[in-house]
Amino acid sequence: MEGVSAEKHQAHREKIKNVLAEVGKVVVGQEYMVNRLMIGLFTNGHILLEGVPGLAKTLTVSTLAQVLHLDFQRIQFTPDLLPADLIGTMIYNQKDGKFEVKKGPIFANIILADEINRSPAKVQSALLEAMQEKQVTIGETTFKLDRPFLVLATQNPVDQEGTYSLPEAQIDRFMMKVTVEYPSKEQELEVMRRISNMQFNFNVNALITKEDIFEIRDQINKVTISESLERYIIELVFATRRPLEYKLNEQAPYIQFGASPRASINLNLAAKAVAYFEGRDYVLPEDIKEVAKDVMNHRIILNYEAEADNVKTTDIIKALLVKVPISK
Questions:
Q1: Which residues contact 101 (CB under 8 A, 6 or more apart)?
Q2: Which pLDDT belongs to residue 85?
Q3: Contact between 295 and 176 (Cβ < 8 Å)
Q4: 211-261 tens-digit pLDDT
Q5: What is the pLDDT of residues 290-325, one digit of tens each?
Q6: pLDDT winner (highest mean) among 19-28, 159-168, 232-241, 245-254
Q7: Are the C-beta atoms of residues 45 and 152 closer than 8 Å to each other?
Q8: I want to staple 48 with a disulfide (CB 3.0 to 4.6 A). Which of 54, 63, 177, 293 is the partner?
Q9: What is the DSSP string of 81-147?
């Protein structure tokens, strides 16, 4: 890869593989989730995790932060949470007779925003502003957030009572929305055995430094993507906006709004990361297709007819990948 020695490139790829193995010491299964979290980390994108309770989302994220040697903060979002609880506030120091800044938990490298839809709009907007601007303002002072800065937010899709849905414009700021599935029978059997036999060890080794992370980001940026695949990404996104032009006659009645330009940007970045993880310095069509669901499933807004007919966003994306041709 241009500008990077082959040895260094190989060393970084080995470290990425070792990260998966190290997280696996604590978390059984969930390789897919870890892969997506690492794509977000190495492309500077935030991830929204959706899954029922008990699927080790919090454990996976905290373990990954340890392996990556990054500062980690978990914030439990609740209806009484205030923006100041997140970003910090000014407190009065009686001894000095001055106001001082007390920084909040947002000042970390990896933030786990647990059940982000449990808090009101003001708290959500404070977090999402930090995600977009990579800075927060406390009093009259603006503070840059630490780099790298990654927000991983979780949503519980089952218990929606007392929740505040994230507006589409805010959800769009997440690079990917990853659905966390139940473990397989064998994986759940392994979890049960580890816990019941007290054979679990939460100690993991830090394998990657911040310097490694920035170097890997630079290497992913240098992965090449052909013009035909760039145009394929654009065609996929435009097909969500003008489905009839792409012969998506069955799907068109269900789409209220298509994907935003952020979908194009993130499809490109995520596909490059997949190619890099596979040891290639060029993108294949399969790389784009692999990440299409996670990048687009929260950006295509369906109408009430889709809900009535039990049509899911994933059904629309499957049809897109079949119907939209790759440009020559």
A1: 88, 89, 90, 138, 139, 141, 143
A2: 87
A3: yes
A4: 888 988 998 998 999 999 999 999 999 999 998 888 888 888 888 888 899
A5: 999 999 999 888 889 888 888 888 999 998 998 888
A6: 232-241
A7: no
A8: 177
A9: --HHHHHEEEEEETTTTEEEEEE-TTSSSEEEEETGGGS-HHHHHHHHHHHHHSEEEETTEEEEPPS
Q: How far is CA 146 from CA 105, 140, 207, in A?
A: 12, 19, 20
**What is d(CA 264, CA 259) in angstroms, rounded to the nearest whole number?**
9
If one counts every other C-beta atom within 10 angstroms of the C-beta of residue 221, the result is: 12
In the chain, CATH 3.40.50.300 sits at 6-212
Q: What is the pLDDT of residue 3?
A: 44
Q: Find out whether 236 and 320 touch, Cβ atoms under 8 Å.
A: yes
Tell me which CATH code domain 223-323 carries.
Answer: 1.10.8.80
| Cα separation values, 300 from 33, 41, 277, 306, Å | 21, 24, 27, 12
- Quick one: average pLDDT of 156-171? 68
The model's pTM is 0.86
CB contact at 8 A, 136 and 143? yes
Confidence at residue 252, expressed as pLDDT on a 0 to 100 scale: 86
Give the model confidence (pLDDT) of 296-305 as tens digits. Answer: 999 888 889 8
List all residues 6 or more positions away from 160 whose beta carbon is below 8 Å from its beta carbon.
none
CATH superfamily of 6-212: P-loop containing nucleotide triphosphate hydrolases (3.40.50.300)
